[in-house]
Design a protein that fits this description.
The protein is 42% helix and 16% strand.
Length: 300
């Protein structure tokens, strides 16, 4: 499995496994452990989670599985997130969903993640979404404390635009290591708003969630997805590839920013297909046809 160097001392597997939908997989703790080991046997050793996933329960399920085989943790790179307060029956006093990046809340959620994951450290902690009331001095103070105590090794962001990243970075001594954003042939906004060029400029390796556009490229739901899938099928035939999922992942792998797609499937066969896509090489012309299909208009 190809490795992507984010900064000195930190590498991600080129493919990341997402754990947001663990509850949907209906696995026992032992089954989840076995599934995790199967994923790692494919060379995928980077796992993505968040405090709020599964109504604040996914991290705990992962932690219970890792507790069955503690030695596995040292072979993994764990990414998790903080900052979103969701409406939840676990916190009935909350009246709305909101974002909190206060010093106390970042520390609290990092401590909760450590407890839930049954680990002494988190490899990378991400700020989950940008907030209009984010105080970068609080963020810097919290990051500094967590890093000094050895509880978090590195930090990054998620769903941030380039100016959001730049603003937070200006308050930090250490480099933000990634920006997790939605990228797919259906969702090309980050190519159009300058975010991808910013990643290239700053050598910031992006993680990509929803590479299959939340199913829109599996079962087209509108004229745009139908248009894209038509071209994906054409390219799949040209490349002699058995399925457009491999074409989609190849399209992501082809970008020079070293996009690291997140596959959140609970089926090992689907994850194997993503690994197979590392060997699918498309031309710039084929990449551009998919991009133009998403835009809906030809390039000028």
């Amino acid at each position: 499995m190809e490795k992507v160097k984010l900064v000195e001392g930190l590498e991600f597997s080129r493919i990341i496994h997402g754990q947001m939908r663990i509850l949907d997989w209906n696995m026992s703790t032992q089954e989840l452990l076995k599934f995790t080991e199967q994923i790692m046997e494919l060379g995928i050793d980077t796992f993505d989670n968040a405090d709020i996933y599964g109504n604040y329960s996914c991290e705990d399920l992962v932690g219970k599985a890792l507790a069955l085989k503690p030695g596995l943790r040292e072979k993994m790179t764990i990414v998790t997130k903080c900052g979103i307060n969701i409406l939840s029956n676990k916190f009935p006093h909350k009246k709305i969903q909101y974002y909190d990046y206060s010093f106390d809340y970042i520390i609290q959620e990092a401590e909760n993640s450590l407890k839930n994951l049954r680990t002494d450290y988190i490899d990378v902690l991400l700020l989950h979404r940008p907030s209009d009331i984010l105080n970068p001095e609080d963020v810097a103070k919290a990051f500094g404390k967590l890093r000094k105590e050895g509880k978090v090794r590195y930090f990054g962001v998620s769903n941030f635009l380039s100016h959001d990243v730049s603003m937070v970075q200006s308050y930090l001594d250490e480099k933000l290591v990634t920006n997790q954003i939605e990228i797919s042939p259906y969702r090309i906004i980050h190519f159009e708003n300058g975010n991808m060029n910013y990643c290239l400029e700053k050598r910031l390796k992006p993680m990509a969630y929803c590479p299959m556009a939340d199913g829109r490229l599996v079962v087209p739901t509108d004229e745009k997805s139908e248009r894209i899938v038509k071209v994906l099928n054409e390219v799949a035939e040209e490349l002699n590839v058995d399925g457009i999922d491999k074409v989609i992942y190849s399209w992501l792998f082809s970008h020079p920013s070293k996009i690291m797609p997140i596959n959140g499937s609970g089926k090992i066969d689907r994850i194997k297909r993503t690994v197979d896509a590392l060997n699918v090489k498309m031309s710039i012309e084929q990449w551009s046809r998919i991009f133009v299909a998403s835009r809906g208009v030809v390039l000028p």
